[in-house]
Amino acid sequence: MTLAPLLQVDAVGKSFGALQALDDISFDLKAGETLGLIGPNGAGKTTLFNILSGFLAPDRGQVRFMAQDIGSWDPMRRAQSGVVRTFQKSLVFPDMSVCRNLALALLALQGDGYRWWGGRRALANAEAKARQLLAASPLADDCQTRVGDMSYGAQRMVDILIALAQQPRLLLLDEPTAGLTVAEAAQLLGLVRQLHADAAVVLIAHDMDVVFRECDRIAVLNLGRLVAVDTPERIRSHEAVRQAYLGALARQEV
Ligand SMILES: Nc1ncnc2c1ncn2[C@@H]1O[C@H](COP(=O)(O)OP(=O)(O)OP(=O)(O)O)[C@@H](O)[C@H]1O
């Protein structure tokens, strides 16, 4: 029996006024798969993330998650169902500890708004869950560390742990590895696989080394169109991709 894909994007389009930011985008994603999403500035990567996470509605097409049309679901409902997104700009509270940051993410997901500030027990429960998650990570000894005192790479790892605390089935990572070395990026993405092996991941990254090493397949966007979706090997030799990415792919020794 063939399982239905976790995510099905079907003929999605989005315009801003006269600008067609996305045109006829279709692809599938299976549980456990990592898809790299690459393309030059303005290609439409963030617009696609906004549509998948419910911050923008497409003008055309359909997004199905676990075989359901999620077009009418708001970002909170999607997050509670396992569609979890990170942003280019970190959302951590630098003055709080790692543990408290994770706990607040867990509480926010429960949709209790600010009432949880009064709920000491809810916070204690969330912090206990956060400690469990941390124990299995390279930041096991940093539960009480103030995030603002950590290295840049460690802070990016806190971003990922916050996303993982939300039990993602589909994890949308927007440039999580920017500013990291290839080794740090591999460690960060390894953590996703270690803690959530069956989550599907869509990764936006500008670093071609990271994308070609870490992704099972790569989707190439250019001017709002999907140029190709294929394995890294095939993407390297794809003629239209080579045209769009001549310089970057040349550095990959294709
Ligand atoms: N809210 C908006 N209003 C008008 N135009 C927009 C809006 N959001 C995005 N665009 C335009 O849509 C196109 C795609 O933008 P998008 O941010 O999705 O590209 P991107 O591939 O994520 O680029 P980058 O790598 O620079 O982040 C761009 O031309 C951008 O200027």
From TrEMBL:
<dbReference type="GO" id="GO:0016887">
    <property type="term" value="F:ATP hydrolysis activity"/>
</dbReference>
<dbReference type="GO" id="GO:0005886">
    <property type="term" value="C:plasma membrane"/>
</dbReference>
<dbReference type="InterPro" id="IPR032823">
    <property type="entry name" value="BCA_ABC_TP_C"/>
</dbReference>
<dbReference type="Pfam" id="PF00005">
    <property type="entry name" value="ABC_tran"/>
</dbReference>
<dbReference type="Pfam" id="PF12399">
    <property type="entry name" value="BCA_ABC_TP_C"/>
</dbReference>
<keyword id="KW-0547">Nucleotide-binding</keyword>
<dbReference type="InterPro" id="IPR027417">
    <property type="entry name" value="P-loop_NTPase"/>
</dbReference>
<keyword id="KW-0472">Membrane</keyword>
<dbReference type="GO" id="GO:0005524">
    <property type="term" value="F:ATP binding"/>
</dbReference>
<keyword id="KW-1003">Cell membrane</keyword>
<feature type="domain" description="ABC transporter">
    <location>
        <begin position="7"/>
        <end position="248"/>
    </location>
</feature>
<keyword id="KW-0813">Transport</keyword>
<protein>
    <submittedName>
        <fullName>ABC transporter ATP-binding protein</fullName>
    </submittedName>
</protein>
<dbReference type="InterPro" id="IPR003439">
    <property type="entry name" value="ABC_transporter-like_ATP-bd"/>
</dbReference>
<keyword id="KW-0067">ATP-binding</keyword>
<dbReference type="InterPro" id="IPR003593">
    <property type="entry name" value="AAA+_ATPase"/>
</dbReference>
<dbReference type="InterPro" id="IPR051120">
    <property type="entry name" value="ABC_AA/LPS_Transport"/>
</dbReference>
